[in-house]
Design goal:
single chain, 159 residues, alpha+beta, Alpha-Beta Plaits, 30% helix
Length: 159
Amino acid sequence: MDFTHLDEAGHARMVDVTAKEPTVRSATARGSVRCSAEVVDALRSGSVPKGDVLAVARIAGIQAAKSTPTLLPLAHVIGVHGVTVDLEVTDAGVDIEATVRTADRTGVEMEALTAVAVAGLAVVDMVKGTDRSASIEHVRVVAKAGGRSGDWTRLGESA
């Protein structure tokens, strides 16, 4: 089996995508923050002591998508041309969805995952004083579009 991120000697390397043509690509990821009913009530009423949790998490997710190559050493520096981070308070906590778009040589799955994970971290940071057991769960790519491998949607998920 050939590993694209290892050279012949087994050393880590960044895959060279220079020869690839830029194409329009997108990826969507989802995840959740599970928290107590007390936190859910505070989120719904806007009474979380640290302030507007969803606004902070949205900005954190957008910033994270743009910072992905700084966090993941083999991720390419690409033009992140669009990011949306949507958060919804549910009875169990906060559901998070991020979609990242580019017109570049490689996909944006890692950027979408990073956006969801960091948005989740921001939620946990904002509510941890009320609920120390808040947790991030089930962060996953649910869809991608464009590139050589084409479109894909995770079985059982809508894009």
